[in-house]
Amino acid sequence: xxxxxxxxxxxxxxxxxxxxxxxxxxxxxxxxxxxxxxxxxxxxxxxxxxxxxxxxxxxxxxxxxxxxxxxxxxxxxxxxxxxxxxxxxxxxxxxxxxxxxxxxxxxxxxxxxxxxxxxxxxxxxxxxxxxxxxxxxxxxxxxxxxxxxxxxxxxxxxxxxxxxxxxxxxxxxxxxxxxxxxxxxxxxxxxxxxxxxxxxxxxxxxxxxxxxxxxxxxxxxxxxxxxxxxxxxxxxxxxxxxxxxxxxxxxxxxxxxxxxxxxxxxxxxxxxxxxxxxxxxxxxxxxxxxxxxxxxxxxxxxxxxxx
Length: 307
Ligand SMILES: [Fe+2]
Prior knowledge:
The protein is an alpha+beta fold. The chain is about 35% helix and about 20% strand. The chain has 8 helices and 11 strands.
């Protein structure tokens, strides 16, 4: 499940790591391969930004060059934006160099700073990072595109601790029926004309109101949301230990993962940088591992009328 990049050049030839990601591995860099903000900037983020939170994260939107989640005077906001913007540029450059084909026309979503201690945050079930889940949707519907996240632990002394219960493929096999998306109630993921018309309408509206895109939807995204909610809402699933694995990410390490296909929960840790990208499904060379393809195959095999 964990693929550690030891520093051997052969592990970094173009697209090698894209293959690991697509197969559901968490690619781990014991030392971040991206130059981090300076010590002074990291101390600023931890001390000044953490105290001025409006939301659970402070997020930088590169497309709009905008910062959200913070209530601060203009000088603090400007320095935060500058730090996140320049780090985000380096992450994008690194990933494009490492996986040029996989990252082609990938859309950068946000660069977030997560300043809160993850353990015992008392969030609602659906918002909690402490419960194992796969990600469903990012900035609205994904239509099957992949959610890639690149994390760096910027806590100087505390590990960030994750738990996984395996890949989407494993979990789908064991839990799809209980979640209402298995062969007993097959879901259609292919889009019909009315699905496409709705999305076209939302995209048109989002030219004037960018936030409109969050109301976009698709059959695929609704199925993924159902699975996500099942994982977070079901006590028997929380107690299940099959395939459960704990991972510790030390200070200043980085890791990346397709979070739509690898279940995860953050059990503890404070201060992380997280970059999110939407990678076109068409860029995947191992599409059989993608949640879209797994759902499509299963509904096509079981209920041709649902196509
Ligand atoms: Fe998540």
